[in-house]
Amino acid sequence: LHFPRTFLRHSRRSLASLVIPDFEDISRGKQEVPEYFNFASDVLDQWTQVEKAGKRPPNPAFWWVNDQREEAKWSFEELGLLSRKAANVLTGPCGLQRGDKIMTVLPRIPEWWLLNVASMRTGIVFIPGTSQLTAKDIIYRLQASKAKCIAVSDTLAPAVDSIASECKFLKTKLIISESGRDGWLNFRDLLQAAPDKHDCVKTKNQDPSLIYFTSGSTGSPKMVEQSHCFGIGFAASGRHWMNLGTSDIFWNTSDTGWVKAAWSSLFSPWLNGSCVFVHHLPRFDPAVIANTLTRYPVTTFCTAPTAYQMLVQHDLSRYKFMSLKHCLTGGEPLIPEVFEQWKKQTGLDIYEGYGQTETVVICSNVKGMKIKVGSMGKASPPYNVQVVDDQGNVQPPGKEGEVAIQIKPKRPFCIFSQYLDNPEKTAATERGDFYTTGDRAVKDEEGYFWFVGRSDDVINSAGYRIGPFEVESALSEHPAVAESAVVSSPDPTRGEVVKAFVILSPAFLSHDPEKLTKELQDHVKKVTAPYKYPRKVEFVQELPKTATGKIQRSVLRKREWGQV
Ligand code: ATP
Ligand code: MG
Residue 215: nearest ligand to its CA? Predict the structure, then answer.
């Protein structure tokens, strides 16, 4: 069986009434989590049965495309078959056993999904990483996680070879490639030869399943351990925030190394019987995104706020999207200006959600609810989400504090188990009855959460607390600003002041910087409370970002304070 070259055609079956395995009550906290749970056998294999009975619309379960118009299309049955073969590759030639760890650093290729599901089937702990990692990043991750196997494609194999001897736990190197490489096992060859019979292991709901490294927006990435039942936590949000059902085709553009890929390109759609749509997308190109939405019947789309920003700057009015009806975002705050532009150009709203690698969805705007532009929406079940003060006391509406999730007396089943090998960091997140997120927000009278900034990013100027997000949002309403990042900067009288790093729109590059600074300052004073205006402005060509595209304000801040 060769893919992605091979086009696996999905068989069309009659559309009868739907039988959907329903985990929504569990994900709402209304029903206990089953003692044993495995996403592969309890969700995916169930959909195979539904599909075989002709009770699912004729959508593929997985649909992968690339720029060369190659495709892979699998039904749930085909996904089952291929992932069982992959499971046999892991436990056979790769020599892995239940509890061992595999680090998988792959571009958006179908094998990422196969290895992920194969890990569930075998009880092997799956550790995704983004393919933008360098040899230095990989060695840090391999040593920290003690992974026994690493799976990469051609691009990263030399980097792995350069450091492999320093990783004493690493036993097997698995390459996903058309050709072989010395010292490596070739996954595609092994997959073809592997038997397709495999009994899924029985996993307890809290057995470790995934390890994610956080984005590293604030420091070294932490290892977040998630259990087998983590995935169930997306049943309600998948249905109501993402608005997914069995006839939906969901395209989420996240890199496979980011937890958002698990949220939106695996758990949420497959819990709801939807099709996971993937574009290989070697680099972010607005034209490719727009063309793909024009060419394929994608109903639901999710991308990062910065990507929406690039899309609206590309001007989408000239495209006609084939089937798009629901748009989502998360991972960073969505600037209101981008929401408005997207609405103007496509006629669609963007439903923002908020969460972390440590959690499932914490807040979201669910379909049918009034969207308050600039807010992250309301608390998402099963979490009890509150704003708390430094002692862990719940704050009343309107009062700023840290976003926190109640974990006592009962810890939600779908929150991380721990930061692996870091009990101090794990303990430091707990305050009173709550897990604290490190993010500051205000909850309004109607229960909507308004993001202020990461705790470390909040600026304290002459007694005023200023969240960078509000200032950045205000700046973005000015036509000269393509993108900006706002941080604190030292000041002899005020202690610290607001400084804005601004990337200019092309049309303003030749303008006088002094005049422009004044104009931007006046603009911010006009659209938001004047004390927030940036006393310092610096025009830059780029902003420091994490591999997942998030602005690293901490890097700019440290530079300002001479800490680098
Ligand atoms: P690290 O923990 O290593 O510094 P990180 O926090 O960026 O990295 P992630 O877990 O990927 O790693 O990101 C979660 C964070 O992203 C949240 O804590 C929050 O700061 C930010 N975030 C996510 N969604 C939103 C949103 N809708 N609005 C504002 N911020 C968001
Ligand atoms: Mg974090």
Answer: 1
